[in-house]
Amino acid sequence: MMAWVSEFEHDIFISYARVDNQIAEGDPEERGWVSLFHRYLDVELSKKVGRMKVATIWRDTRQIRGNQLFDQTIRDAVRSSAVFLALDSPGYLSSEYCQQELECFYEKAQKEPAGLAAAGDYRIYHLLLNDIPVSEWPKQFARTSGFPFY
User: Fold this and answer.
1) Which residues contact residue 27 at a Cβ distance below 8 angstroms, ignoring those fewer than 6 apart?
2) Least C-beta-crowded within 10 Å: which of 11, 19, 121, 144?
3) Taking the CB of residue 104, how many other CB atoms lie within 10 A of it?
């Protein structure tokens, strides 16, 4: 499946901390917040363009151990994505893995013809799952105000 944005394999890369997708014990749906967000985002994008499954969204659903190196599959997905969605939280900020994803996208986007901004919009979307002070934001979010989801 090709991305909506023709120069990329994926339209959106969702970067998140595993802790933010945990489910409460006994939850009959067994779907974490990130999984539901991904599903609803896919539906809303389909409505926006008028066809189902047009935009491609990539999210790592594998279990990653804390001692694993930055996986080539994830690095490739980051590099082949048009937009980066960072689901920021205390877990996200403390995850070295999430910071590597963010830095990888930031560096690659700067080298692309569109750069970090396309048509005046920053290609890194900073979705705040918690009220995190601006002073704690990674440098890649510095030029935005973010989108509160708390």
Assistant:
1) none
2) 121
3) 20
